């Protein structure tokens, strides 16, 4: 028998991202920059960017997970590393799909901390073991999560050519 999983559909994601935006707005925090952790955080950043009327989006490419529950010893930020020069007054909202161990969020939050005025984190899911407690969380779970953007296998065979 397979392990129970948290299943997020596109429809539920629409509601979840709107509820996250409402949490941010209700808190009084007014980010002027959304910093997305690619890849899962891109969906959250886009949704929150529209809902909070923030057009300034940045992306950090961080490698940590290499498979289902398999990861590198430490997350690493891949080039190009975002340039946060002249961002001392920025109010940054870091977005990701899940705070699992929290290591990726911690890396990006620490990267921003001394370069911006304020930084907060928003995630769709936060797991109990996360070393980062996010300010904005849609749901907490200790289950593995099926996200609509990563449940199905890629449509290419790895060489950029569609499978027949």
TrEMBL record:
The record places domain Phosphoribosyltransferase at 6-151
Q: Please, which domain of life does this record's source organism belong to?
A: Bacteria
What CDD domains does the annotation carry? PRTases_typeI (cd06223)
Q: Show the InterPro entries listed in the entry.
A: PRTase-like, PRTase_dom
**UniProt GO MF annotations:** glycosyltransferase activity
So where does this one cross the membrane?
Answer: none
| Pfam families associated with the record | Pribosyltran (PF00156)
Q: Write the record's keywords in alphabetical order, separated by commas.
A: Glycosyltransferase, Transferase
Q: What is this protein called?
A: Phosphoribosyltransferase
The organism is Pseudonocardia charpentierae
Phylogenetic lineage: Bacteria, Bacillati, Actinomycetota, Actinomycetes, Pseudonocardiales
């Amino acid at each position: 028998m397979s392990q129970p999983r948290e299943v997020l559909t596109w429809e539920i994601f629409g509601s979840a991202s709107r509820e996250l935006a409402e949490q941010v707005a209700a808190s009084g925090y007014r980010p002027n920059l959304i910093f997305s952790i690619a890849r899962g955080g891109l969906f959250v950043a886009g949704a929150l960017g529209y809902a909070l009327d923030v057009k300034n989006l940045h992306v950090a490419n961080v490698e940590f997970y290499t498979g289902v529950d398999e990861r590198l010893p430490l997350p690493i930020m891949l080039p190009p590393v975002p340039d946060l020069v002249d961002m001392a007054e920025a109010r940054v909202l870091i977005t990701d799909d899940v705070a699992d161990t929290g290591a990726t969020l911690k890396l990006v939050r620490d990267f921003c901390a001394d370069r911006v005025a304020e930084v907060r984190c928003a995630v769709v899911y936060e797991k109990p073991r996360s070393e980062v407690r996010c300010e904005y969380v849609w749901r907490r779970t200790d289950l593995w999560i099926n996200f609509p953007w990563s449940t199905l296998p890629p449509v290419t065979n790895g060489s950029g050519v569609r499978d027949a």
